Amino acid sequence: MMLAKEYKSGVKPIWCPGCGHFAVLNAITKAFAALEQAPENAVLVSGIGCSSRLPAYINSYGFHGVHGRALPVAAGLKVARPDLNVIAMGGDGDGFSIGGNHFLHACRRNVDIVYVAMDNEVYGMTKGQASPTTPEHWEHSKLTPHGPEVRPFQPCAIALASGASFIARGYSGDPNGLAHMLFEAVQHPGFAFIQVLSQCPTFCPEQVQWKKTVHLEDACTDDPVQAAAFLHGDDGLAKGIFYRKPRPTWPVQHQSTEPVNLRKGFEL
């Protein structure tokens, strides 16, 4: 049995001091230790961004892909190697902007992977532009001095509408709670989505106040109508598992068709 610290690689994180991604890294190692995860049987797949550096810091297989493409890579890997535990990860820009279409269809297909979206509501690696989840009136960027002036993307609600079978929100300030959430997500048979409120004190210093406003909600249900009602009334700062309802994963296993019968179907 490995200790949590043994799941960390020899590569040191280069995130800014106070970044919430450090806690996400710790939560993943704690979850792996609780799962007794063999490093050679786990793969972390990421796109581009501050959070997408994370696979390099874990003692397992990893794939650092191109911008917004973590989910199709992770899904393809899982379909080809169903014996592996596959975790895709990235940030709000990577996952919900350029990767937004992949996010919708990953929820819909329900491939048996986990997707961890570290949401700091900003493009941190490219110096603080507004992202899809940036609050409408956020005025801390010179590019949008009056705020983006559009409604922010609602990841959990959109995941529900798109067919995700496990939906949760964690908080980097609660790494133990997040580790438990990851433990549950890995064991869930299907697409498990976790939005992590992961603070960026460099470009969003106001986010350090999340520790006072994030609240735990006991709202887990297998009823999508109840889940939708909760998520559409949510203030965006609730944490917990909101929806869990296993359904058949993709690809569905069918009995193989004999080639001779397949040929007959195309005969003129």
State the helical fraction. 25-40%
Number of helices: 9
CATH architecture: 3-Layer(aba) Sandwich
| Terminal CA distance | 62 Å
- How large is the share of residues in beta strands? 15-25%
The name CATH uses for the topology is: Rossmann fold
Low-confidence parts: none
Major sheet attributes: 8 strands, mixed
Provide mean pLDDT, rounded.
93
SS-based structural class?
A: alpha/beta
Strand order of the largest sheet: 2-1-3-4-6-5-8-7
Look at the structure and give the CATH class.
Answer: Alpha Beta
CATH superfamily: Thiamin diphosphate (ThDP)-binding fold, Pyr/PP domains
Shape category: globular
Supply the number of structural domains: 1
- Strand-and-helix sequence, N→C? HEEHEHHEHEHEHEHEH
What's the β-strand tally? 8
Please identify the oligomeric state.
single chain
Radius of gyration: 19 Å
